Structure formats: structure tokens, C-alpha cells
Amino acid sequence: MMRVLFWTLAISVLAPFAWAGEFTSAERAAILRHGPWPPPDVRDRSNRLDGDPKAVALGRKLFESDAVSASGDLSCARCHSPDQAFADGRKTGQAAEPLARNTPSLWNVRFNRWFGWGGANDTLWGASIRPILNRREMAMTPARLARAIAAAPELAAPYVDLFGPPNAATVAVNVGKALAAYQGTLVSPRTAFDEFRDALASGEADGAYPAAAKRGLKIFVGVGRCAWCHAGPNFSNGEFEDVAIPYFIGPGEVDPGRHAGLAAFRTSPFTAAGAYSDDPEAAAGRLTQRARRQHKDWGAFRTPSLRQAALTPPYMHNGSLATLEAVVRHYSEIDLERLHVDGAAILRPLDLNDDEVADLVAFLQTLARQRGR
Amino acid sequence: MGARRVIGRLAGVLALTSGAAVACPTLEAATGETAGEGYVIAFATTPDPAPLAAPFALDAVVCGPRGPYAGALRVDADMPLHRHGMNYAPTVTSAASGRFRADGMLFHMPGAWRFKFVLETEAGPVRLAVPYTLE
């Protein structure tokens, strides 16, 4: 009887710690670096409207309005649909013209250092202006945008309240900053992974976290080397890599990726250190202004966050991989011949078996959660 | 090496010049140091250890054969096994007494990095390096 009581007590006391043994101390430390979530709120000093409730409300109206497109029937929300995790579910985008790149989700976009697959902007407001004025996307001009806002009752009043009457000289920057204020609120909810990670940090048990996800997590932070680039609480180091996805977009046409993005950034007036920034001395501006042009930039694309990724198929800069399983198999069987000869020597085939592929997918699925669920 | 701290490694470092001892400046809490060709560089990152995928600064104190180093210093870093460097070019500013500060450093991956220093001396460039592991 005493022996039974001893083991009952021992199991009840030790059970919460039993799962901790599934990870080495190095793996445990690596897992903890993917949190806590959400991260501390840091204001965007280049945008005085970041966090301003009036700007957030106007930004949401602008985001949902067709008036900001030249055709009058295309809103930001059309391609960044709230019902599709702020992406569009298409292989590549479709605006005024067909686009060459997959539409990225806007979840957690405020945590980016660079915006867009090529990093053409270092401010969220600058990145918001670009599609509005791009002739292949919303094809607006500043003068036409000012007239459109003045003519839309749901936009005109809150715009005037914040900025005064719209005019061609200032409307693009004002619209960009209001849109950025709204997008800055799109911080994804905590997930099953976050509950598990915090339980690991505090030494408590989280028996609800699936065993397959734990096995996948072990690969992710270990032999998979996934966390080398998908680092930190947002599962992205914010930088650019060539991951052997073809960058040919048609006969004789290529997408230069970061190479073109950095060139566009260098000529953009809408940078954190530029004349339209509300804090040109901000540290973010000083860092991005020091970005190096490198041979390896050619065909490199921004490392996307993996949070909410399970909700935003298809994947990669050109939407060429339809499922998370296809993404995992791409890295498992990666063709090193497709990498730059002078690029970084990071990737190598993982040679995962079917169970390991399924485990990694199970883990990635625990990084996503629909709003309100 | 990780965030190995070398407390006051340069404190009391003396350099001989014309038979007289010249004291080099002190770096009270150093992340690491490297030496060669008569020069010693002690450095500290801020924050320490260096963060992953976030900017940090590096303070360095350079002691030469004749005392505090007064020439130009270049600072960089790379991951030799990965065959890549940093994606940003740090800016180095100098202060008196062999003190320097590099701003705009960023390690975008964990693993085996290497801090690289180039001293532009009268005799030509002196290149020093020291490994640094980012967890």
C-alpha cells in the first residue's frame, strides 16, 4: 500500500517535468528564444501616427476602400483579405495587372525591418504608398488620390480631422501613415506553440501540445537548421536568402529579389531616414541606410515570418509551393545546384522521411490561429 | 567563446616606448580580445552578448607598441563556414586614447561568427580576428 502511495505521489509530482526531458538544454534554450509572444510594443518613430486611434480608424477605412485605386474597384483588402489571413490565397498577385510575386500576409508586419519580398522599403508607411502609386497595382497619382478622398464621405471627414483638406503634395504620405497605423494593429494571437513555450519557460506542463508538433519542433531547432533564418519570436531574422526557388518569371525575365529591392530603397523618398520620416534620426533609419549591396542579393528574398503561415498558402516569393508539406519537402530535397555559387553555404538536403515531414508540418500548424478562436 | 567576459583584461596593459612605460586605456568589462603584431584589441558589445537579428554596437580599445593606438580602425564580421558576412556596413568613430565605437553591427544568424579588425598603421594594415559564437 505504501509503495503504491509512493509511486502515485512521485508520478503526480514529477509528471509536469517529464516532458522537459524530451529536449536537450540547447534545444530548450533555442525554443525559448522564439518567445515570448506578443513581443514588447515598440512604436515606429518614423510614423507619428503609429498607435493613434484616429489614424488606426482612418487607416482601416482606407484599407477597405476602393477609392484608393484608379479603377475604383480595388482596395488593399482585396489582395490582403482579412478573411484569408491578410493574403489572397493566389499563387501570385492580381491587381491592375498580373503581378510576379505572391501576396504576403500582413499579420505582424509591424515587426519587419524591411518590407516586401525584396525589401524595397524600410518603413511600413512607405511600403503602403508603393502599391497605391504603382501603375501595375492601384495605379493612382497623388492628385487623383486627393480628389478621391475628398469625394468619399467616409474618408473625407476623418482625413480632414487628422490632416486638413487633402492635397496632392501631402496625401500619399498621410495615407501611407494612416494605413500603417491600421496595419500596425495586426498582431497575431497567441498560439498553441506560445502556450507550450511559456510552459517550458516556467517549468510547467503543457500536456495539450501535440507529440508530433514536439517532434517537429525538435527538428526545427536542431538538425533542420530552420531557426537559423526563421529566428526569434516572429520566426524571421528579417533578412534575405536564396533558397533555391527559381527566379525566372518568363522568357528572358527574372525577378532579381533583394538586388532590385535595395536599388529601389536607395532611390525611395519614403525611408525612415528620409524627409518624410517623423524621426529621420531614428536608429532604424541609420541601420537600413548601411545595408550593403552584395552579389548574393540576386535572387534572394526576405525570410517570411512563420506565424500564421499555415493560414496563407501558397508559399515562397512566387507562390510555387502549394502546401506546407511541399515547403518542407523542398528543403528536405533541396537542389543545391540552384543556389548561387558565391552564395551563403547554409542549406543542404535534410533527407527527412515521411514521418519527419509530417512532424514538421504539425509543428508549423501550431504557429497559427484564427482570430477569435 | 560566446559571451565570455574578460574583466579588465587591458587594465594595466603597458606598452614600452623609448624605454618608458606608457599605459593603455582600460576597458572594464570586455567581451573578448585579440592580439598580434604588437597590438592588443579589447572589445565589448552592447548589449552583451550580441543579440540575434538586432543591431548592436561594439566598443574597442586598441593598444599598440607605443601606447594607445591613434590610427584608423575598421571593424567587420563574418561567418567563415557559411561564407557570408554582415548585411550592413558598420560605422566606426574614434575617440581619444585608442578608443573606438562601431555602430550598426547586426548578426542575422546564430552560430560561429568572427570579429575582424583592420588597423591602418604606418607600416601597413594589421589584420586581427577573433571567433565569437552567437547562441
List the helices and strands and how they pair.
The complex is a heterodimer of chains A (373) and B (135).
Chain A: H1 2-18, H2 25-32, H3 53-64, H4 76-79, H5 124-133, H6 142-151, H7 153-163, H8 171-183, H9 192-202, H10 211-221, E1 240-241, E2 248-250, E3 253-254, H11 258-267, H12 283-288, E4 301-302, H13 324-332, H14 354-365
Helix pairs in contact in A: 3-7, 3-8, 5-8, 10-14, 13-14
Chain B: E1 6-7, E2 14-17, E3 20-23, E4 29-30, E5 32-36, E6 39-46, E7 55-64, E8 67-68, E9 72-79, E10 84-85, E11 91-94, E12 99-106, E13 111-121, E14 124-134
Antiparallel strand pairs in B: 1-4, 2-3, 5-6, 6-7, 7-8, 7-12, 9-10, 9-13, 11-12, 13-14
Please describe the biggest sheet of chain A, giving its number of strands, its sense, and whether it closes into a barrel: 2 strands, antiparallel
Strand fraction of chain B equals over 45%
Radius of gyration of chain A: 23 Å
Q: What would the principal axes of the Cα set say about the shape of chain A?
A: globular
